[in-house]
Specification:
Elements lengths: L1 H20 L6 H29 L7 H34 L4 H4 L2 H27 L26 H41 L1
């Protein structure tokens, strides 16, 4: 597990450094790739160290606040991954389906806004259940699982139905919608490429 963590950190950091150092790679596609690599490093750093400590320890112990923080990072960066992939899909869609409009659409400011949205939106969405859960009374103290996630809610004396509905809404906006958007863009790309190849053959 330590080897996997070191490989993730080293490989992703190398790619980010290469993209950052070479100005000819400062294109939207490579910027989004670098953002994905950074997201992967942050996600791995939030999960792997605690997992390694747990495997090496006889007792797996985590404080309530640390558990909530891990839960926040887990969902925030996990959802960011989907939004970053959606941003990449949009970039490829504009590049292939609207090549003449690409320079005007995918400007530096547009890329910056997409990156901010990809990280800020999930962070804001994930912070709501954390804030609500911070002062809740615990009735159970044994968490089933290797990481802190939504199963933490089962430890509280009172479960919130409203919080569960909110969680489903976040799932739709931060995961399902980006996945559907990615599918739509790549289907459109395949159709455009197929039509172009047909025209070339004629």
């Amino acid at each position: 597990m330590l080897t996997a963590y070191v490989l993730i950190i080293c490989s992703n950091s190398t790619i980010v450094c290469i993209i950052a150092l070479h100005r000819n790679l400062h294109e939207p596609m490579y910027v989004f790739i670098a953002a994905l690599m950074v997201n992967s490093v942050l996600f791995s750093s939030a999960i792997y160290p605690k997992l390694l400590m747990d495997f090496l320890s006889e007792k797996q112990i985590i404080s309530h606040s640390a558990c909530l923080f891990q839960w926040f990072i887990y969902y925030s960066l996990g959802c960011s991954e989907f939004l970053l992939l959606a941003a990449m899909a949009y970039d490829r869609y504009v590049s292939i389906c609207k090549p003449l409009q690409y320079p005007n659409i995918m400007r530096k400011r547009t890329v910056q806004m997409l990156l901010i949205l990809a990280w800020l939106l999930p962070a804001c969405q994930s912070s709501v259940p954390m804030i609500v859960s911070a002062n809740k009374k615990l009735c159970h103290f044994n968490l089933k699982g290797i990481i802190c996630n939504s199963t933490v809610q089962k430890l509280y004396c009172v479960t919130s139905r409203l919080l569960n509905i909110y969680g489903l809404a976040v799932l739709v906006t931060a995961v399902i919608c980006p996945v559907l958007f990615i599918l739509f863009t790549y289907i459109r790309i395949v159709i455009v490429c197929y039509r172009s190849s047909q025209e070339v053959r004629r």
